[in-house]
Amino acid sequence: MTTTITDTRRWYCLRTATRQEKAAVEKLREHFTEVLIEGGVTCEAEIYLPVEKRRSLLRRPKDGKEYEIVERPLMPGYLFVKAPSAEAVKQCVRDVEAKIDGVEFIHAVLEYRRNDGRLIPYPIASSLIEGLMKEQADGDFDFTPIAKRYRPSKSDRVLITRGPFSGFLAQVIAMSADERRVSVEVSIFGRTGPAEMPVGDIAPATVDDVAERSRVSSAA
After folding, report:
1. Which CATH number is 173's domain given?
2. Looking at the DSSP assignment, which residues form a beta bridge with residue 11?
C-alpha cells in the first residue's frame, strides 16, 4: 500500500528592508530551522526570492572587462515563504505587544482583513509561484546580452539538450522577438510535432548527433 504525503504548506508574501532581500532569505532560513524543530514539525519551510540578471557597468574596469553580470531581486522589497501555518509566517515580523522578536530585515506580511475584522496573512496560489519559478528557470528574467549564446536560424538542424525532449533532433521554425525562445519541429519515433522552448535548451546538431539518432531509431 502506497502512502501519499499531502503538503499542507501555503505560500505567503513578506516585505523586506530595501536592498536586504538576500540577507533576509538567510535570516529566514535560520529562523524556520529553529521554529520547526522546536515545534516538532517535520516539514521544512521554503523561501523563494525571484531574481533577474542584468549587465552592470563597472566603475573601475579591469582585465579588459567593462561590465559584470549581477543578480537583483525581480520585485525589490518582497519575497515568498512556503510555511506550515499562517501563524508561523506572522512570527517572522517583530511584534512589540506580543514580545515577538521576529526576523531581521523582515518588515511585514502581506495581509487581508477577514469578515470579522481580523487581519491574517494572505496566502499566495502555488500556481503563481510555480509560474514565476518556471519563468526564471527558462531564462525569462535574464536580461543579459546573448552574444556568446547560440542563435539559431530558420531551418537549422538542432539537438535538444534539456527538458522532456532531451536527446531528440529538431528543426527550427521560428525565433521569438527577444531571441530567448525558439519554435521547432521535433522528430520523435518517426513522427514530427511542434514544440517551444528556451534557446538555451538546444544546440547545433552535429553529424555524429544525426548518425547516433538514426542508429537508435533503426535499433528500435
Report:
1. 2.30.30.30
2. 82, 124
133 and 161, same domain (yes or no): no
| Residue 149 forms part of a structural domain | no
Domains in the chain: how many in total?
A: 2
Question: 25 and 128: one domain?
Answer: yes
Shared domain check, 127 and 19: yes
- Domain presence at residue 95: yes
DSSP states along 69-126: EEEEESSTTEEEEEES-HHHHHTTS-BTTTTB---TTEEEE-EEE-TTS-EEEPEEPH
Q: Are 207 and 215 in contact (CB under 8 A)?
A: no
Q: Residue 30 carries which side chain, given as an amino acid letter?
A: E
CA distance 215 to 209: 10
| Structural domain that includes position 166 | 157-219
CA end-to-end span of the chain: 35
- Note whether 50 and 97 are same-domain residues: yes
pLDDT by residue for the chain (220 residues), tens only, comes to 444 456 788 999 999 998 999 999 999 999 888 766 555 554 578 999 999 998 887 777 777 677 788 899 999 999 999 998 888 899 899 887 777 788 999 999 998 888 888 888 999 999 999 999 988 887 888 888 654 567 788 899 999 888 888 888 899 999 888 778 899 999 777 778 899 988 888 888 887 776 766 665 555 5
C-alpha span between 151 and 180 (Å, rounded): 9
